[in-house]
Amino acid sequence: MSEIIIKNESQIEGVRRSSKLAGETLNFIEPFVKAGVTTAFLDEKIEEFIVNYGAIPATKGYNGYPKSSCISLNEVVCHGIPSENTILKEGDILNIDVTTILDGYYGDTSRMFTIGEVSPKAKDLIEVTKHCLDLGLKQVQPGNYFGNIGFVISRYAKAKGCSVVFEFCGHGVGLNFHESPQVDHAARKNSGEKMKPGMIFTIEPMINSGRPSTVIDKNDGWTARTVDNKLSAQFEHTVLVTKTGFEVLTDVDGNYPIT
Predict the structure, then answer these.
(1) At the N or C end, where does the chain have fewer CB atoms within 10 A?
(2) Cis link prior to 142 (omega < 30° from 0)?
């Protein structure tokens, strides 16, 4: 991997604005996420929202990816391609993942949505996954090791009877879609490089109710499903290492005070 980019103040502000738009995109789409709509419809609304703000959906055309968001239902771990054939129904859980390019800067975030009443197992998995993200974020501070993010996430997930996807990870972001470092969600304590102020990256744990392995759809080359068809959940934020702690750049609801 290449060297981790330390962003300057101007770059940080650019990433902050793009990240804010990404977070606002998820808030915008929430009322449309309901039974009977297609994931293609949601994707169209997402693209319209992003473009209306003078930005670009980063996924569209990225390595041939055809849509403006990733929408992953139930056993799909990540990179689910929105489709006219995929209609949301009662009991579904889904992750919507958006990345914006605003004035050349990237912001990346995702969250879980539920359709009507979902199973207790699905509720528990979503709660565990959200807490995994929160635990990972609390590890972000100057001088701490990147491996400690994955260490606390995997320890908690396993204690709750879940598994951590290891085939996909978080990553540096901001000036490019994917930068160094690789942010693993299962890692040894005190492993990896040390965090420094000005680093920006995603934490995006993918937690499975069954086995951790995934299989890629051979037809589309993107959709990653759990190997045992059991449920998967994911939450993602873009985070900045500050001089004293962290700032969650994609947090538009004030859930994470700047430290």
Answers:
(1) N
(2) no
Q: How many CA atoms lie within 13 A of 98 on its CB side?
A: 34
Tokens read off for 118: 């979902």
Quick check: helix, strand or coil at residue 220? coil
Q: For the sheet containing 237-241, what is the strand order?
A: 179-183, 170-172, 200-203, 237-241, 246-248
Any domain includes 3: no
Range of the domain at 222: 9-248
Cβ neighbourhood burial of 200 (10 Å; 0-12, 13-18, 19+): buried
2 band by pLDDT with thresholds 50, 70 and 90? confident
Summarised one tens digit per residue, pLDDT across range 116-175 is 999 999 999 999 999 999 999 999 999 999 999 999 999 999 999 999 999 999 999 999
Is 256 a domain residue?
Answer: no
d(CA 124, CA 93): 12
For the chain, give the number of residues.
259
- Structural domains in the chain (count): 1
The whole-angstrom separation of Cα 65 and Cα 220 is 9
- Which SS3 state, helix, strand or coil, does residue 70 take? strand
Hunting for tokens 């569209």 — which residue is that? 60
Select from 183, 172, 23, 4 the least CA-distant residue to 102.
23
Spatial separation of the C-alpha atoms in residues 217 and 196, rounded to whole Å: 38
Distance, CA of 118 to CA of 29 (rounded, Å): 20
Cα angle 133-69-34, degrees, rounded to a multiple of 5? 85
Structure tokens at 71: 């929408």
Residue 147 covered by a domain: yes
Say if residue 1's pLDDT is above 70: no
Q: What is the CATH number of the domain that holds 93?
A: 3.90.230.10
